[in-house]
Design brief:
This protein has eleven helices and 19 strands. The chain is α/β, with parallel strands linked by helices. It folds into two domains: about 200 residues, Alanine racemase (TIM Barrel, Alpha-Beta Barrel), CATH 3.20.20.10; about 130 residues, Beta Barrel (Lyase, Ornithine Decarboxylase, Chain A, domain 1), CATH 2.40.37.10. Helix 10 packs across helix 11. The longest helix has 20 residues. It is elongated. The structure holds pyridoxal-5'-phosphate.
Length: about 375
C-alpha cells in the first residue's frame, strides 16, 4: 500500500529481513553472520537495515567503500555493537579516519599495508586487518605468489604492535553456478592460503569465504563467518536452483507507484520515445511515473511487468527517464490507482527476479539501482 500522496514508494519489510537472517543462520549454524550493507544495503537503506540486523543479533557489518563504513559509525553504530569490515580501498584511504572509527580493514597488497601503517603511526591506533587472498576470482585479493610476502610483512607489523591480523579471507567467482570447476579450485587455494598464514603464526579471529550463494549451497565454505548480501534481502542468488521460498527467504523490497494518467487512444498509436510500440487497436493506456532515473532498467522496455488490481501488464515501448506506459487493453483503472512494479510475489505480483529476466540482468542489479528519488518506507522493524 502506497502512502497517501506519493508518486511512488519502495516498501522495505524489516520483518522479512529478520526472517531471512534467521533462515541464513539456520543454513550456516556454526558460522557468524556478516550483514553486507554496501551500496545502501542493495538499495534497501544501509542504516535501517544495519540497525535491524543488529537488533536481530548480528555482530558483523560489511561495506565496500570506506565512506559507507564511516557513515554507519557516524550514525552511531559503535564498535561494541558491530565490527564493520570495509574491503575496497584506493590510495589515499582514508585509513586514519577508518582507524579512529574502529573499522576493520581489508588488505590485498603491499601499497595498502604501507599506507595503513603510515596511518597507524600517525594516529597511534593499531589496525584490525583482514588479509585477502585472490583464490581465483581475479579481482581484489593477493595472488598466491605474493601471499607469503604479504603475510610475513603483516606479521612483522603485528610483532611491532602496529596491527592485528584478525581475518583471513577471499571471495568466490562462481558460487552461484553449482558444479563450476572454479569452486573447488578456490576452496583448495583458500585452504592453502590459510595453511601458509597459520603456519607463519597468524591466529585469525575469523576465516571467511562465503557469499550468499555459498552460504546457501556450500556448507564446506562457511568457515567462521559468512558474508550475506542478496539472500538477506530475500532474493535468490541462484534463481536456476531455486526461488526465495525454496531457501526460506522472502523479498524485502516492494516497489509501487500511482498511475499518473489513464486515457483512451485509437489503434495504431505510437507509444513512448521512438514509437517502438503501436497500439494494436482502440485501447487504454496507463502512465506509470517511474523510469530509468528511478533505477528501472531501460533494457526492460517492452518487457517489464507490473500488476494493477489483479492483472499484469507490460511496459509498452521505451521506459523513459521518469515514466513508462502500459497498454491496459481497454481496462479502466483510474489515475491514482496503485501499480505494483515488483514485490515479494505473495499477491501474485511481479518480483525483482521477473524484472531481472525482462532486462537480461540479475536481481542484485534491479534492487540496488532503485534510486534516491524513490522514498523508502520501513515496516515491521523492531527499532520502531
Ligand atoms: C557483495 C559482496 C558480498 C555479498 O555477496 P552476496 O552474493 O550478495 O551475498 C560478500 N563479499 C564480498 C567481498 C562482496 O563484495
Amino acid at each position: 500500500m502506497l502512502a497517501e500522496g506519493l508518486r511512488a514508494e519502495a516498501t522495505i519489510d524489516l520483518a522479512a529481513l529478520r526472517g531471512n537472517l534467521a533462515a541464513l543462520r539456520e543454513r550456516a549454524p556454526r558460522a557468524a553472520l556478516m550483514a553486507v550493507v554496501k551500496a545502501d544495503a542493495y538499495g534497501h537503506g544501509a542504516l535501517p537495515c544495519a540497525l535491524e540486523a543488529l537488533a536481530a543479533g548480528v555482530r558483523w557489518l560489511g561495506t565496500a567503500t570506506p565512506e559507507e563504513a564511516l557513515a554507519l559509525r557516524a550514525a552511531g553504530i559503535a564498535p561494541e555493537q558491530a565490527r564493520i569490515l570495509c574491503w575496497l580501498w584506493t590510495p589515499g584511504g582514508p585509513f586514519a579516519r577508518a582507524l579512529r572509527a574502529e573499522v576493520d580493514i581489508s588488505v590485498s597488497g603491499q601499497w595498502a599495508l604501507d599506507e595503513l601503517l603510515d596511518a597507524v603511526r600517525a594516529t597511534g591506533i593499531p589496525a584490525r586487518v583482514h588479509l585477502k587472498a585472490d583464490t581465483g576470482l581475479g579481482r581484489g585479493g593477493c595472488q598466491p605468489r605474493d601471499w607469503p610476502d604479504l603475510v610475513d610483512a603483516a606479521l612483522r607489523a603485528q610483532a611491532a604492535g602496529l596491527l592485528e591480523v584478525v581475518g583471513l579471507w577471499s571471495h568466490f567467482a562462481a558460487a552461484d553456478e553449482p558444479g563450476h570447476p572454479s569452486i573447488v579450485a578456490q576452496q583448495d587455494a583458500f585452504a592453502a592460503a590459510l595453511a601458509y598464514a597459520e603456519q607463519a603464526g597468524v591466529r585469525p579471529e575469523v576465516r571467511h569465504l562465503a557469499n550468499s550463494p555459498a552460504t546457501l549451497l556450500l556448507p564446506d565454505a562457511h568457515y567462521d563467518l559468512v558474508r550475506t548480501g542478496l539472500a538477506m534481502y530475500g532474493l535468490s542468488p541462484v534463481p536456476e536452483v531455486g526461488g526465495p521460498a525454496d531457501f526460506g527467504l522472502r523479498p524485502v523490497m516492494a516497489l509501487g507507484a500511482r498511475l499518473a494518467l489513464v486515457k483512451g487512444v485509437p489503434g495504431g498509436h505510437g507509444v513512448s520515445y521512438g514509437h517502438h510500440y503501436h497500439t494494436p487497436g482502440e485501447t487504454t493506456l496507463g502512465l506509470v511515473p517511474l523510469g530509468y532515473a528511478d533505477g528501472l532498467p531501460r533494457h526492460a522496455s517492452g518487457a517489464g511487468p507490473v500488476q494493477i488490481g489483479s492483472k499484469w501488464y507490460t511496459a509498452a515501448g521505451r521506459i523513459a527517464m521518469d515514466q513508462f506506459v502500459v497498454d491496459l487493453g481497454g481496462d479502466t483503472p483510474e489515475a491514482g490507482d496503485e501499480v505494483l512494479v515488483f514485490g515479494n510475489g505473495e499477491q501474485g505480483e511481479p518480483t525483482a527476479e521477473d524484472w531481472a529476466r525482462a532486462s537480461g540482468t540479475i536481481a542484485y542489479e534491479i534492487v540496488t539501482r532503485i534510486g534516491g528519488r524513490v522514498p523508502r518506507r520501513y515496516v515491521g522493524g523492531l527499532n520502531g
